[in-house]
Amino acid sequence: MGVTARTNRSKADQDPAQWLPPLPTAHCRYLAEWTSTKLRWDLAADPAELDAIGVFASGQCKDTPVIYTAVP
Asked: Source organism's superkingdom (predicted)?
């Protein structure tokens, strides 16, 4: 997902509990890609991050697939 330099600076190193793309129609794709990366690399998520992802996964993003291949 491409973003402008300004958007990337506003995001910095924040997770979905703290930042989502400014365009609401991009939220589900962003969260799916974020989750895919976490799963692919077996990365941890803090409770606030999991809560934020869960809210969207059980709501407006429930039909958005998360596709990944785990790293061996």
From this structure: Bacteria
**Can you point out the beta strands (E) in the chain?**
none
Tens of pLDDT, residue by residue over 47-59, are: 999 999 999 999 9
Per-residue model confidence as pLDDT tens digits over 40-49: 999 999 999 9
Q: Please report, for the chain, the start and end positions of each structural domain, with discontinuous segments joined by +.
A: 22-72
> What pTM does this model have?
0.80
d(CA 38, CA 25): 22
